[in-house]
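Supplementary Methods S3. Input chains for the assembly prediction are listed below.
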Amino acid sequence: MPKILLVEDNEMNRDMLSRRLERRGHSVVMAHDGEQGLLLAGTEMPDLILMDISLPIMDGCEVTRRLKADKRTRHIPVIALTAHALVTDRVKAIGAGCDDYDTKPIEFSRLSEKIHNCLAEKKAL
Amino acid sequence: MSFQNLSIRRKLTLITMLTSSIALLLSSASFLIYDLISFRHLLTEDLTTQAEIIGYNSAAAMAFKDEPAATATLSALRVKGDIVAAVLYSPDGTMFAQYFSNDNTLPTFLPSRSQEEGYRFKGRYLEVWHEVTLNGEPLGTLFLQSDMRQWSTRAKRYAGICLGFVLISGFFAFLVSAKLQRVISGPIVHLEDTVRMVSATKNYEVRAVKSYSDEIGSLIDGFNTMLSDIQQRDTALRGANDELQTRTQELEQEISHRKQAQEELLKAKYVAEEASRAKSTFLANMSHELRTPLNAIIGYSEMLEEEAQDSGTEAAVQDLQKIKSAGKHLLALINDVLDLSKIEAGKMSLHLEMFDVSGMIEEIVTTLQPAIEKNKNTLGVRLAEDVGMMRADITKVRQILFNLLSNACKFTDHGTISVDVDQRTVEGLAWLRFRVTDSGIGISAKQQTNLFQEFAQADTSIARKYGGTGLGLAITHRFVQLMKGRIEVESQPGEGSMFTVHIPAQVTPETVGPTATEGSSDASDAIADMQTGRDTILVIDDDAAVRELMTRFLMKLGFSVLTVANGEEGVRLAKQVHPVLITLDVVMPECDGWTILSKLKADPELSKVPVIMVTIVDNEAKGFDLGASNYLIKPVDRERLAVLIEKHRITRSKAITGIDTVSKSFLSHGNKRGEVGAEASEKVSHAENLAGRR
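Predicted structure tokens for the full assembly:
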């Protein structure tokens, strides 16, 4: 059962996404800000991280940069979630080291496929 | 002072006096000379007569040699004061008798002997010689000498009289000429005074007074005429000057007005630009703020729908679907508005890449299936055989067709919808023609006029019946324009519609926008600029999983990726798109990689394209023999592949920055996976929601 770390500050989104991921058979760990996300990634060692980009305390890009700089967490795929319409935000996210991105509102089937792909890619290469 | 520089008054006086004096002098002199000549003549005659008388009286004494008698006779001359000497000469020439006046001043010489009869002038003396005869007998010669005292006295007196006369008449001439010269000099002096005054005071109203109708009179007339001419011109000039000054003032005022207006305009422009920026920011923020709650609404309704399906509460499922659908509709509207505002701000950029047209059409049709079935319509797709790859912004091409097709579905009930795609060449340029035809309600000519205008639905009643923002066709139109294409419509009410879109098969990179320079420093635009030069890598592999993984990886490195399972097909594609690099598998069902490598290297067009072998077969030597650039054994070491590609990148003209690389990877993401909604999630997530178009 793949373990997913969901870093998201909006309570409703966090609640909804976690419940839907659990329904699909994932185990979900949640963090409500960047700092907590960074901490949990190290302790929980999830198989994949869903990272909201605009986060309090430490934004998603910074968290990802740190995760990718750390030998222990470098291998964990990170999918950025951004609600911003601007291309620059997505560029920032990928630039920070995110493996993929998805935009809000979450199209669950699409996100689900991205999660699946990321996990498969990790396994293959 | 020379004569020339004297005043005209003096000149006239001098001339008059000089002339009259000369005339007077000449006439006096001639009179004097005449008088003196005739008086001398008289004196000569007188002395000759005197000599005849003396000779007669002394003839007896001479005859008798009576010297005292002769001397006495000669002495009688004493009464004649002017005779200074008298001598009687014997016929033999000796002096017989002589007389000298009382004066002691004796003549310095006396002629020693007698001379011929007659008179002669010697110095200031007159001498007369006379022969003394008696009865025809010559007795001797008489000599008389006169000092012409009378003559010289007379000459002196006459000269004095003449001089006095000249002086007196000169004085009178001066008086008269001084009076008369004014007739000439007066007007000239007056003219001179007038000229001096005019030039000193610049008063051109002054006139010289004309005294006589002579030459000076006409000179004064001419001068006055000239003055009045000057006066007229002066008045006109002053008028013109005044006018000029007025005009200048007016112009200055005008200029300051304009400057003010310009400043106001600049201010207004600044304010407008600020407002426009504020609008863009507001729209971006709003879109964010609106999407967050929508995220929750759509997500929860989807989740509840799944749960309701599981628990079998059908009624709730339908209601939840309605909530979800409404949410998605709202999302589509927000996206439309955002798109349009971006287009208007000139921030919509093109992300050009090579893609397969038929694949794209297939995706659209799949996505639209529910909408087609909704009104019981049938869809026919016809692709001409020559339609292959095109280079354009796939997202926008897809949205164009999507908008047209979903409109067709919406406005057609129990009818047919068709998509025709073909390629044609106009003036050497290849164009793709997409034609969407339906048998729906059609559009009237009047409605067609503002069909592509924002917020202008064909009829307000349509909005009520079919929903929609009225932005779909406007956006479609703008997208077509952005790619330098054009869109046409043919329709009759009740007889269906036909929309035709022409797009160049190779869209050129320039971004087109109403204010393309505005905010061009945005990263998005910079990315768009870089992406236009994106290079393509061709992946030839029969394994779908490898193709998929390679695609994702290579896209992240900033390339456009084309994949193909069949080797022969790979060679054909390579010729078409000229990739910068090819990766090639060896073990493939129909034609193995070695054969393909040989074909690639044998083709003059393609022999220079580097080929990286990616295979499980361990035969590096054979690969290099056949011309492969590199050899990688599966499973692929991605870092190694990246390094190799980086080396080949040297041939690329432009260095690609980090941002470029990452942006390309996600912008093209999903395209290969055929999810219409995936890459369009933000810009173009209209895919799922078709309610409300046109």
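The CA atoms of residues 9 and 46 of chain A lie 19 Å apart. Strands of chain A lie at 3-7, 27-31, 48-52, 78-82, 100-103.
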